[in-house]
Design brief:
alpha+beta; 2 strands; about 80 residues; two-stranded antiparallel ribbon; 3 helices
């Protein structure tokens, strides 16, 4: 796994905050294997289209605010 430039990760977060899911999708590697956690659900997706679907589910309501983004380490 290679490091992702801060400009890409920052662009991804900016796209999510703007709810520009096609832009967020465009920043993802075609072979992404995505896992995410919310308080009531564990989400998994393969490929950028699957991640876009998850993001749309998370942020489908305009009143949903992002309070923080926590970095994580790659799992073993």
């Amino acid at each position: 796994m290679t490091a992702v430039p801060a400009s890409v990760t920052g662009g991804f977060v900016d796209a999510i905050l703007a709810r520009d899911f096609p832009r967020a999708r465009g920043l993802l590697h075609p072979d992404i294997d995505f896992r995410g956690m919310t308080p009531s659900h564990v989400w998994e997706a393969d490929g950028p289209a699957g991640v876009e679907d998850v993001l749309r589910a998370w942020f489908e309501h305009p009143e949903t605010d992002v309070e923080r983004v926590d970095p994580t380490e790659r799992g073993a």
